[in-house]
Amino acid sequence: MLIPSIQKTLTELSDLLSQLSTADYISQCHDLSNATIGEHTRHIIELFQCLENQYESGVVNYDSRKRDYAIQTCTETAKLAIETIIRNLEKLNKNLILHQVIDGETLEIESNYNRELLYNLEHCIHHQALIKVAVLQNDAITLDQNFGVARSTIEYRNQCAQ
Fold this sequence. Notes:
With 162 residues, the protein is α+β, with helices and mostly antiparallel strands. Helix content is 57%, strand content 14%. The strands form 2 sheets. A 3-stranded mixed β-sheet has the order 3-4-5.
């Protein structure tokens, strides 16, 4: 169920990108501390790319990402990156080491591929919620009502509705 949830979430993001003009994508949004939808999208994509690109080595460091300006300024580049991520998600679960530097201290934390996929899904949803803040200002854009909503919240709402 994890991979289909990630695929659905990333497809929702790609569908949104298809509705945005370049100006919508690269314009600073006051309500996002002047960040752009493109910057949030790049951040989502690059964390997934880190996991994919570093899977074989067994050590994942989300800080060592490319920070590809083309992803944050071109919706087509971002959509192609999302398609690639979706195609390459299915890998065997294996142990990984998460490498992180926090306040000058290097941490190495045991993890695994599925745990990092879940982290990336939750991270993606969090940034989609922020993107939604910027998008709601544009009446011409249609979003799924669950865009940027955690899967656990969706499940809870469904249970309450019954």
